[in-house]
Each structure stands twice: as C-alpha cells, then as structure tokens.
Write a structure and sequence with these properties.
single chain, 144 residues, alpha+beta, Aminopeptidase, five-stranded mixed beta sheet, 31% helix, 22% strand, binds coenzyme A
Length: 144
C-alpha cells in the first residue's frame, strides 16, 4: 500500500482525533485530542506529522525542539496497520526534521508499564536511559 508521511493538514483533524481516542483510550483527561491539536498548531506545527495511505490516515507523530532537546509525542499507528513500517517511517521523518533544525538529541517518554513501544523504539536505535522522569501540572494562563 502506498504510504505518504507529511505535515498535518486541517482535513486530517477528525481522523487524528479518532485515532488518538482509540489508541490512547486510557490517556489522562488533560490530553484532550482536540486541544492537543490546537496547541500544536500554535507551536512548531511543521513538526506534526501524519502517515496516510490512499484512503485513510494510519498514523501520527508529534515532535518538538526546545533548543536543547527534541521530543516525540503521540506516536500512534492504527491497530490494523501495524508492523508494516509505518511507525518507522514516521520517526525517520521526525528525526530528519529535528536534525535539520540542529537538534542534537531526541527523547521519548514511555510509560513504565508499556513494553511494546519500548521494543519498537529499541528496534529503531533508541536506548533506555537511567533517568527519573518528573512532571508538574500547570494551570495555563491562556487558552490556545
Ligand atoms: C508502537 C507503534 C507506534 C509501532 O508502529 P508500527 O507501525 O507497528 O511499527 P513498525 O512496523 O514501523 O516497526 C518498526 C520495527 O519495530 C518492530 N516492532 C513494532 N512493534 C513492535 C512490538 N510491539 N514489539 C516488538 N517489536 C515491534 C517491528 O517489528 C519493526 O522491526 P523490523 O524493522 O526489524 O521488522 C504502534 O504499535 C502503536 O501505535 N502502538 C500504540 C501506541 C503507542 O504505544 N505509542 C507509543 C507511545 S510512547
């Protein structure tokens, strides 16, 4: 099947929301797909990628570069389209875009309970690093 990896367009919106609701069904409430898309369109939208086959959207990857590290989020491939190289193609494009920006290192956060994505990332050259991941919720001062 012919695969196209390209920048997100407005016409992808509903398919992306449906994909994330399916693939990340247990995501915390703050990860609202509609708001996540809107926020990304305000911040480096050129790093928001979708994978499409002729008739459907089959994957996403959202990258960002903060001037020190690159980050990858919302890497998702539709369940029926997995193990066909779509995740690999999405990451290859994201890595290329980040490298073009001068980004020297890319990080990904994976839930400790999720073994499957770890095996996927390891196949693509990522290594587990001994770090403690910390986070803090903020109250945004503006809506996007
Ligand atoms: C993880 C995910 C993105 C992989 O997408 P995919 O399109 O199936 O991956 P690819 O077909 O490009 O696989 C690339 C390599 O990883 C391997 N791989 C993919 N999924 C794997 C798995 N679950 N276990 C072991 N290896 C896996 C493939 O065999 C392939 O290796 P190869 O090139 O040696 O054959 C997809 O399974 C997914 O969307 N999972 C749910 C969402 C998720 O967990 N996202 C990550 C959040 S951190």
């Amino acid at each position: 099947m012919q695969l196209e990896v390209r920048k997100y367009r407005g016409t992808d919106h509903d398919a992306v929301v449906a994909l994330w609701r399916r693939v990340f069904a247990d995501a915390p409430r703050r990860n609202d797909p509609v708001r996540d898309i809107q926020r990304k369109l305000d911040h480096q939208p050129e790093l928001f990628l979708v994978a499409r086959e002729p008739d459907e959207l089959v994957g996403t990857a959202m990258a960002g570069y903060d001037g020190h590290r690159g980050w990858l989020h919302l890497v998702a491939v539709a369940p029926h389209a997995r193990k066909r190289g779509i995740g690999r193609a999405l990451l290859a494009r994201a890595e290329q875009l980040l490298a073009d920006l001068g980004c020297p290192k890319l990080n990904i956060q994976v839930r400790a309970s999720a073994a499957e994505p770890v095996a996927f990332y390891e196949r693509l050259g990522y290594r587990i690093e001994e770090r403690i991941s910390m986070g803090k919720e903020l109250a945004p001062n503006r809506e996007t």
